[in-house]
Amino acid sequence: MSLVLELANYVGITAFGISGSMKGIRKGMDLLGVLTLGFSTALGGGIIADVLLGIMPPTNLVYLPNALVALLASLFTFIFYKVFTNVNKPLIYADAIGLGAFASSGASLAYSVDPSPLLVIMIGTITAVGGGVIRDILSNEVPLILTREFYATSVIIGSGIYFVLRYEGMSNYYDIFISFVITTTLRIMAIKMRWELPRILHS
């Protein structure tokens, strides 16, 4: 089961790295800018979460496989940009898998530090969506999660479910896996059914 989640984690890093790199390319950034945006999107949320939890140095800055996957995904996107423009839909679903993996792993890490529901939900959410927020800010845009789609909401629900399962005594890995499945499923359903939160429309 841990192997499944580890694979999902690398799927997420790859998808997020491509997402950040594509944004950098569209914004006219050079190679360094594209690599920076791809790396930040893929690993920035986990780095912020570690800093908030007092884990120093952050895991994503010392565990080389994560950094290597993020940088390679960004580099390949830069080199084969035209190819990636034609695989948008698969990347969206890969992004959903990564979202679930990051949310459940972040929630688990937070619970191991302090079993506080607010901490678990916040760290799970930051781990999953923090990189995307960094990507949008560096691109001089309002973060996507604040303006459209049922994105961060699925992470909040999934992280909350992790806390409840763990608090009720379910063994680790099972609670992580269930949280991962629920978060990913909610995100995929939101994509297919075009769920959005209410907003006020100005004329």
UniProtKB/TrEMBL annotation:
Membrane topology: Multi-pass membrane protein
InterPro entries noted in UniProt: Gly_transporter
Key words, A-Z: Cell membrane, Membrane, Transmembrane, Transmembrane helix
Subcellular location: Cell membrane
Residue runs in coiled coils: none
Entry-linked Pfam families: Gly_transporter
First-listed, main subcellular location of the protein, grouped into a coarse class: membrane
Any one GO CC term of the record: plasma membrane
All copies of domain Glycine transporter, residue ranges: 7-81, 93-166
Membrane-traversing stretches: 31-56, 62-84, 91-112, 118-138, 150-167, 173-190
Keyword Ubl conjugation part of the UniProt annotation: no
PANTHER family registered for this protein in UniProt: INNER MEMBRANE PROTEIN, UPF0126 INNER MEMBRANE PROTEIN YADS-RELATED
Name the UniProt record assigns to this protein: Glycine transporter domain-containing protein
